[in-house]
Amino acid sequence: MDNALGEPQTIVLLGGTSDIGRAIVSRLVSPSTQTVVLAGRRPAELTAGELDRPGVKVDAVAFDATEPGTHEALVRQLVADHGDLDVVVLAFGQLVEQDELDADPVRAAELVTVNYTGAVSISLAVAAQFRRQGHGRLVVLSSVAGERVRKANYVYGSSKAGLDGFAQGLGDALAGTGASVLVVRPGFVHSSMTAGMKAAPFATTPGAVADATVKALAHGRRTVWVPGTLRFVFSAFRHLPGPVWRRLPLG
Ligand SMILES: NC(=O)c1ccc[n+]([C@@H]2O[C@H](COP(=O)([O-])OP(=O)(O)OC[C@H]3O[C@@H](n4cnc5c(N)ncnc54)[C@H](OP(=O)(O)O)[C@@H]3O)[C@@H](O)[C@H]2O)c1
Description:
The chain has about 250 residues and is an alpha/beta fold. Helix content is about 40%, strand content about 15%. Strand 5 (about 135-140), helix 5 and strand 6 (about 180-185) form a beta-alpha-beta unit. It is globular and about 55 Å long. NADP nicotinamide-adenine-dinucleotide phosphate binds near residues 17, 41, 91, 143 and 193.
C-alpha cells in the first residue's frame, strides 16, 4: 500500500533489465519501499545493482511476454509473496530494424506479440488485481512512434499505437476503482534498445524519462510525453497530409 505521501511499498518492474524501467524504479524507491520485483526472461541474470538500498528486498522472477498463459499465475504469485502491488512498471519491449522485419514475418509477429499481445495480457492480469485491492498504478512505456506511424519503423510503431490505445482504454475502464494507468510517450531514448542507432531530434535519456514519469505519477496525470515538446511536434505531425508526411526525412 502507498503511504500517505503516495510512496509505494511494493514496486514491480516488468522488463527487469530495461534501462528506462530501472531508472523509473530507482527514483520511485523511497524509505517506505519494502520490495522491488524484477521480472524478466532470465531471472538468474536480474541483479539488484543500483536498486540495492537499505531495507529494500529485491526479488527476481521469471516473466516472458510471449507466454500470456502464465501471466495471471505470475500476478497471483506476486501477491501471495508480497501482498498488494502498489506500482507496476510495464517496460518490456522489442525494437528491430524495419528491413529485417520486412524479410522475416515471423520475427515481426514475435515483436508484435511482445509489444502488444503480451502487454495486453499482463496488464489485464494486473488490472484485475488492482480492482481487488482498490488501488494500484500501472505505468506503461508507450512511444511517440505510435502517435503517427512512420514508414521507417511501421511494425514497431503500429505495436506501440495498439499498446497506447489499449493503455488509454484500460485507464478509462479503471476510473473510479482507485487504480490508474499512466501512459508514457518518450521520443528517442539513449538505451540498450537504441545502441548504435542514429539519434533522432529531441533525443533524451532514461533518467529524463524517469524524472518526467515520477513527476507525472505524483500529479496523478494519465499521459506524459518526454521531452514535453514532442507533444506539440507530434500534434502537428498527426495532421500532416500523407504526401507531406511521407517526404519528411524521419528515417
Ligand atoms: N529506447 C527508446 O528510444 C524508447 C523510446 C520510446 C519507448 N521505448 C519503450 O520503452 C520500453 C523500455 O525500453 P528501453 O529503452 O529501456 O529498452 P531495453 O533496455 O532494451 O529494455 C527492453 C526490455 O524488454 C525486455 N523484453 C524483450 N523481450 C521480452 C519478452 N519476450 N518477455 C519479457 N521481456 C522482454 C528485455 O528483456 P531481456 O533482458 O530479456 O532482453 C528488456 O528488459 C520499451 O517498451 C520501449 O519500446 C523506448
